[in-house]
Amino acid sequence: MNRPKVLVVLCLVTALVAACGGRGDDSTESAGTTTNTTAAANNDACANEKPQATDIGVTADKITIEVMADVGSSLAPGLFQGNHDALAAFAKYVNANGGIACRDLEVKLWDTKLNADESKNGLIDACANALALVGNNSLFNPDVSPMTDCKDKAGAATGLPDIAALANDINEQCSRTTFLIQAVAEQCKTLSGERDLSAFTGFTKYLLSQNDNDLHGLFMVPGDLPTTVQSATYQIKAQQSAGVKWDAVLKVSGRDEQAAYTPRVQQVKAANSNFVYNGSNDRAMVAMRKEANAQGLNSVKVWACSLACYTRNFLATGGADVEGTYVWMQFLPFEEADSNKALQAYVDAVGANKVDSFGAQAWQAALLFKHVVDKIVDSDGVNGITRAKLLETLKTTDDFTADGWMGSQPKDLRGFSPCMVVLQVKSGKFVRAFPEKKGTLECSPQDVVQVHLDPAKEAEQIK
Amino acid sequence: MTLHWKRNNVVAVAAVALGVLYLVNANRGVAPYSAKNIGTVLVVGAALGGIYAITAGGLVMTYATTGVFNFAHASIGAFLAFLYWELRVNHGWPTLLALVVVLVVVAPLLGVVLDVLLMRRLRDAPLVVQLMVTVGLMLAFMGITTTIWKPITPRATPAFFAGSSGVHIGDVIATWHRIITVALAAAIALVLRAFLYRTRLGISMRAVVDNRNLAALTGARPNVVSSAAWALGCSTAGLAGILIAPETGMVVDTLTLIIVIAFAAAAIGQLRSIPMAFVGGMVIGLAKAFTGVFLAFGKDWNYAPDAIPAVILFVAVLFLPNARLETGTVRLTKRTERLTTPAEALGGAAAMVAIVAAWANGWIPWFSGTHFGQRTDIWLGRGAGFLVVGLIMLSLVPLIGWAGQVSFANFAIAGIGALLYSHLGGQHGEPYGIVLVMLVCAPLGALIALPALRLKGLYLALGTMAFAEFTDKVIVRHPKMLDPSATGVLFEPLKLFGFRMSSDPDDRKAFVIFLALAFAVLFLLLELLRRSRWARRWIAMSDSPAASATIGVNLITTKVAVWALSGALAGFAGCMLGLSSGSFRVDSFPLFAGLPLVLLLAVQGVRYPVAAFMGAVGLMTFPALYEALGRPSYLTSVELIGPGIAAIGMAVRPEGAVFYAGRDLAGFLPWRRDAREDKELRIARARAEDITKDEINDLGIARPFTVEHAAQLDRALDIADAMLERPGQHVEEPTVDEWVARDAAPVG
Question: pTM (2 decimals)?
Fold first, then answer.
């Protein structure tokens, strides 16, 4: 794979992240008791039943899972290293705290190298060796047949459970064996043409409420690939339906020089816009804000961005130029690690200087895996762990909150979370803006809306 | 003649202008041609142009003063920009001190080291070796930079005078950093022009490029001049990198890929004129700004603006003067070599199939720990992918290796072939689609050959590069080629002789063996073709077009034929690429994915079909090492830097690994007595040649010219016997024993 892809890749990630939300429930307080309770139950199960090899990836003394992520590509070394780090740390954490289903947890790391062929190879490898895929983040995964057709120990084409941190490819998103931590807009009834898509408007409504319901401005669309442009279309429409007026919708590229943002700033100036929303990556927002400052743009009151801007890179490279930028996310931020046990465990296990949102989602996926395994142990004992049972249990799971780190998600783990937290950059740090209370998420089911459109057709209109 | 040429150029310029006007008119956006918008275009265009111009200026300067077209120019600039960041930002050095250390100390030193270790060896190397060594250098610098400064760490280089407000020009503010960039680009263009044409050192630099020996006779010191040229080139690269970094961010790829745009700007300056390269940079910057503000392309051509540099490069290359038929000298680019016999070729083809079949069946030990008789589906898939890459490399052998037509377009042709196959039968797994694709790709190759009819060497290489870039940015992104809404796999398994070939796990072994068979058949055909009249014409054309034309070779049909053959082979490889990958994205065929294929083939030996097979085998190295060693961090660094270092090795061994391995190992074959004799002769000659060519160059200039030196010179140049030769008189080639005896005898 090649070769000028790092920025395209980052844009693609951004677009998908921006298009997505997390999981949530209506509770606004952290929980944090599930793991301990279930661990106690598991200890009882261990005393009552001797573990056996029950399926591929499950032996008497260990359970093997696999995580696929784009890590070692020469184009973007370390891109999703956070996913690998998180799962490796999770295994140590679990094993140090009593194991899983009376066994040790073993994590196999697979590097997909931004390469669809290696993604397919990873699926083949996991099918042969692992109980499930957990915490995946591979950008290019178009052929998931080795996963959906995967045979279990008995030779039945049960399929390989995939609890993805972030399913970027629509084929993975809509696979029958994939379950998502980071929700996506696609509802998977059809993959092309006009269709209903989910979108979250809570952030937009919050910003409108803070600005007299008067926001009009520019939407920056990640423009490197047709798919990333399409991913922005339903966000544009959803925000519009919430009350934002778009003065301009413009494609940006991760490869653009800062000078290329001058005409965009001029358009914002000409329209006297007071709002700019970045649907692209953190680099695009940094360039836009630097150029806006260079051009003396002062009409914009609200600079807003998705989770894509919640990075150390954004703060470090943006410096004073990105002050005031709003960022929204659907799980508690790292700055509040002491408010939530699961979050704190992740930060402690990985290290405060290595945490990132990809790793956080991978850890959440791993927590979901353990949550489901614990449920199976509760219901079927330590030898009830099979791929089939895992899939069955995942389909009926709707009470997972990562111990309060994120909101709970709808049944079948496919819907959009109604929860969010809004941060703002102040004095070079991300600071909670809404809701005000530390360790809480704002959840409002009516903020999840349905948008009906054909993304491909809408994308053609964006210049 | 001159008048005729000028008239043709006027017509061509008018045609291009009309084309541009048509494009502008047909894709007019909503922004009016107001003074405000035009002002924005001018300021933004100048800012972008300054970035491109300063890179292009350094590139042209290096080419003009060293004769080497340096692909690594921007990556050296990126390395130095990171070094500047390290000193200025990370260690808090004062700006001026950091600039001086990087641009006045480190960059020149780097240039001298590069010259001494590497570039001097490229002086007389074939163009493809020169280009590939600099491509390797580019990859090596990218790898070194990435290894030292991990991308995961955020970095930003501050713009100069970032706190000040800049200059208002209409509604737009030109920042001081951009003004400095444009001013420095212009100043460099003018100062370097004056330096090259009005100073002794500058004139010496150009003279050394034109004729090293003649320049030495007039008192120039070629080695010193050459080192100075590289030192200056690295300093300009560093300056460009430092100025560009605040605009693009500290991203190695972005800083490096600017070189493609710089190529276009340099081509406007005909690769020789630094002021015109500045103009070229400005033209591209303004074109991009104009397009961004005033034009709106239709849905099918959404990404056309990204191709502006490629189009400009292609047009600029077309306007370059016709390649002249060189007379008076015949440069023998290839040794007279022993041809592979049909029996040997057949044996080689059979061996390839046998090796791959044995490997695919698990009969060859491998790292994955599987039992004898087993090969994992994962490795079978990788093996198929590597063989497909080998097929693409095979398509380059007749084109580059035999005909000397350097092309960077074959990966793009393979991409077009893959996408065409998804429409012409591949979607149903029909084999006839492969034939159709080859029938389309052959004329496509011939079409690319049109510029080749009047261009050669570097200009031709740049033309093919422009085609590859255009393919990436426009052709494969057209919805008719690749539907952006398409999801999943685009190809059904190929059904042939009852077998199914695809990347599906169950089909992989059959696919790998089918690819090996296909590779072997094409290898055999190429080896047989090598013995034919066509191949001899291509090689003769490569050695001396003038001599070829004189003896009646039709250069046009000869060139078109080899391009068509190469296109057809690349088309076939594209079909296999489709089956191997199953699906594509619009960015699956970037220019910079094709460069390593040429590089890998060149490292193995661009003249030999078997080198493509060895290249495919070589691709397995790193995946196998990762599996064997378990992903140690040092291996990642080796993977980032290693391929570049391997390519750089071509400076020492330009013929490629296959040549040297074949030369050294052929003697072990019982029937290759000729190889054994040849080896003994080479050893004897090497003994006689006890002074280096550089020393010869300096004789009489930097060193006293004694009788003994004259004798050494005669021996080194192998002319002692020839001086005694009279016209028409046959001189016997000395035997090995005579060589050795003569070497042992006292001089004089």
Answer: 0.86
